[in-house]
Known about the structure:
Elements: H1 6-12, H2 14-25, H3 44-59, E1 63-67, E2 71-77, E3 82-88, E4 106-108, E5 111-113, H4 121-136, E6 144-150, H5 158-166, E7 172-175, E8 178-179, E9 182-186, E10 188-196, E11 207-214, E12 224-231, H6 235-249, E13 252-258, E14 261-267, H7 282-291, H8 297-310, E15 324-325, E16 329-330, E17 332-341, E18 346-355, H9 361-373, E19 377-385, E20 388-389, H10 395-408, E21 414-417, E22 429-431, E23 434-435, E24 449-451, H11 452-470
Parallel strand pairs: 3-6, 3-7, 7-22, 8-23, 9-21
Antiparallel strand pairs: 1-2, 2-6, 4-5, 5-24, 9-20, 10-18, 10-19, 11-12, 11-17, 12-14, 13-14, 15-16, 17-18
Helix pairs in contact: 1-11, 2-4, 4-11, 7-8, 10-11
Amino acid sequence: xxxxxxxxxxxxxxxxxxxxxxxxxxxxxxxxxxxxxxxxxxxxxxxxxxxxxxxxxxxxxxxxxxxxxxxxxxxxxxxxxxxxxxxxxxxxxxxxxxxxxxxxxxxxxxxxxxxxxxxxxxxxxxxxxxxxxxxxxxxxxxxxxxxxxxxxxxxxxxxxxxxxxxxxxxxxxxxxxxxxxxxxxxxxxxxxxxxxxxxxxxxxxxxxxxxxxxxxxxxxxxxxxxxxxxxxxxxxxxxxxxxxxxxxxxxxxxxxxxxxxxxxxxxxxxxxxxxxxxxxxxxxxxxxxxxxxxxxxxxxxxxxxxxxxxxxxxxxxxxxxxxxxxxxxxxxxxxxxxxxxxxxxxxxxxxxxxxxxxxxxxxxxxxxxxxxxxxxxxxxxxxxxxxxxxxxxxxxxxxxxxxxxxxxxxxxxxxxxxxxxxxxxxxxxxxxxxxxxxxxxxxxxxxxxxxxxxxxxxxxxxxxxxxxxxx
Length: 471
């Protein structure tokens, strides 16, 4: 086979690649549990996105399969071995503060703006076009290549769990769902739920916390928080202190008063939980302020634990669970969901911890329980997806390294991340793009976008990767 100019092949299909990417991004594929049914287990929008890809694959002559609406695949090639490209069509909630509508897929300044542009619908379309190019060039393959389409990556990974119960495991593969050059190690991911043990005491303060709410997902830094209080004395003093607090911290917030009721709200900045310091946790700020008010006992326990053990400490030092290794760097911690309702005796915290490869998660769990109990909390759930690590000398890594260096002219450094990609579903799987070095990581943030130039470059890299791994 003569030398193929992969970038040139993508350029020939540039207009249709952009058009299809926009159409795909215009589908609101956020999890909607209220719409769950056997045909739409994660909601109608996610099912629509899955069907969009499968129908496109069928129209282009690929072998396609819908696996009980939990996942699907698009396949090309022949042979005993299988190369997997693991993608997902679900996206995180859009959040607030967008310049354009989050699902408009507006093109501006050479970028496509939409929730999912980077994570992971833009890269999924790049992988699809890469496979389409290999097929249209009629390149001989000795292995099958399968784009595996997940639908629940941003939540509980039920999709791949279900898929691999019914379908074969690829020999090797990659997930276009993180950074270039190559991510060969991923931290363990812990989803933890803490619950406050209410004692049922009567209000013992002039200020009673009635409700507190912040965040929607464990893997996102909350960008909004609100609380309601019953204030029997000192209302003006509290509102004055609140104005001083938000001014001092340089954040946005506001309040309204209705008789003895006071409603507070604070705005933060959303970010991916793998690096909480890229965002501003609105829940932390609101709890930190409330802790200074001398609340009722249950309210004080709730915000006290947040303020003293969680707030503004992304490395877990306050909890004494901080850890570092040379492969995957620091342990990180993000509180993504806060719910408190005094009337219902509900006080929960949803915490996301990213564990380095060599960290003993059992020790971390024991220490967290010890700290939580001292504030009246129980650890109700502690689920961990183990860390993932592929040896540097593996055939997969060596092949992808060569391709990246050939196409970019840059050295293919091996990276580790705190995020979790579908690559960890494979014994030999790595994350491979789409974020190029030097680009801002805007996944899970307002005005998420992908550079059209990068979409094209990534497609070319993926096309060569598919061919080299399966030829």
